[in-house]
Amino acid sequence: MIPLKFSNGLIPVVVQDKKNRDILMVAFANEEAVGLTKTTGFAHYYSRSRNKIWKKGEESGHFQRVVRILVDCDGDCLVYEVEQTGAACHTGYPGCFYRTLEGTIISERVFNPEDVYKKTK
Known about the structure:
121 residues; alpha+beta; Ubiquitin-like (UB roll); two-stranded antiparallel ribbon; 2 helices; 6 strands; 12% helix
């Protein structure tokens, strides 16, 4: 196994759709989250704002089944190739990169976040 280099306990994770190769999101994982991802087959990340591990889809039901984990040449960044259920972005878009720098929306919403996340408010 290739040793991973965590910076301040975290490693960036680029999440890519297995089917169309779109970049869905970027998140961080700690060693425990990477281990949970490997063990369960579902994406786990570390929330810097909440200071805890979270399983993608635990609130929304929009899970990421991890098909393969790639590591870069330096061992300091990962790519999770995933089969995405629903949308990856909490805003309701398929992925977090749904707009241009100028603000043009280039994707369509998959769900209304107010409907999905109202149970947690």
